Amino acid sequence: MDKKVLVLCTGNSCRSIIGEALINSHLTSVKAWSSGVKPTGKVNPTAKKVLEEHGDWDAKYHSKTLDAVEGIDFDLVVTVCDHAKETCPIFPKPIPKIHVGFEDPDGKGFAAFEESYQEIKERLLPAVQTALKGTQMKKNVHTTQSGVKINFTGVVEKQQIVKMVENCATGQCECMSDETKKKINDMQVSGADGNVALDLSGDVSKEEIEAALAKSKVLNKS
User: Fold this and answer.
1) 126 plus 144 within the same structural domain
2) What is the spatial distance between Cα 196 and Cα 215, in angstroms, rounded to a whole number?
3) Of 115-129, 146-160, 179-193, 197-211, which range is least confident?
């Protein structure tokens, strides 16, 4: 399942376009988009030329507003200019954000764009990789006296776990076998976003729950 990254700047014509292209070309299991707070509506021709010379250009890259990507469930937002950092919009759900600023090469010669390309490649790519490692949900399953307990940490919302439990209670859950469901007497969710616990009481095993979690569409949605 690819991680989804939004690279955000002001004009979405140089730095964020280069960042988007580099992430898509050089990071595995990561897909990037870019947009601008006040997009120019066109890609800087020199930025395009640099990307073409390095084999990173794709005709799909274009300057656009946030509205064009609002339906994408991003795992990370990266601002690459100070103005975008200061005016970064509020997204419908909590999304981790990092800032990796770069000087704008707009209006300068090809050498300046080549320098920006190399700097973005050297600084942005490892920063994105490091940040994404912290966005992964971690699941710790262990046996208790009354059944099984699952601790969810990292980027996890309490409502996400509540939804999973509701699906099981209403028969919409496809991840757990009917046999396993019959063994569970009760399911209780506690904690808060980033640290959620799910207590399952009943004669159910750790292995059965781990297998169910691996199949959960709520937890593993793309």
Assistant:
1) no
2) 19
3) 146-160
Phi, psi at 32, each rounded to 5°: -115, 150
Q: Is 88 one of the annotated active-site residues of the chain?
A: yes
Compute the C-alpha angle 206/212/217, nearest 5°. Answer: 150
Which of 14, 81, 173, 175 is catalytic? The answer is 81
Model's pTM, two decimal places?
0.63
Domain CATH number, residue 152: 3.30.1360
pLDDT tens digits, residue range 55-65? Answer: 999 999 999 99
Where a domain ends, among 108, 133, 158? 133
**168 catalytic residue (yes or no):** no
Contact by Cβ (8 Å): 49, 108: no
Q: Which long-range contacts (CB under 8 A, 24 or more apart) does 57-65 make?
A: 57/21, 58/21, 58/24, 61/17, 61/20, 61/21, 61/34, 63/11, 63/12, 63/13, 63/17, 63/36, 63/39, 64/12, 64/34, 64/35, 64/36, 64/39, 65/35, 65/36, 65/39
Q: Do 25 and 126 lie in a common domain?
A: yes
What is the token pair recorded at 70? Answer: 């609002």
Question: Which residue range is the domain that position 116 belongs to?
Answer: 3-133
Q: Is there a single domain that holds both residue 146 and residue 124? A: no
Q: Which of 9, 14, 173, 175 is catalytic?
A: 9
Rounded average pLDDT over 190-219 = 86
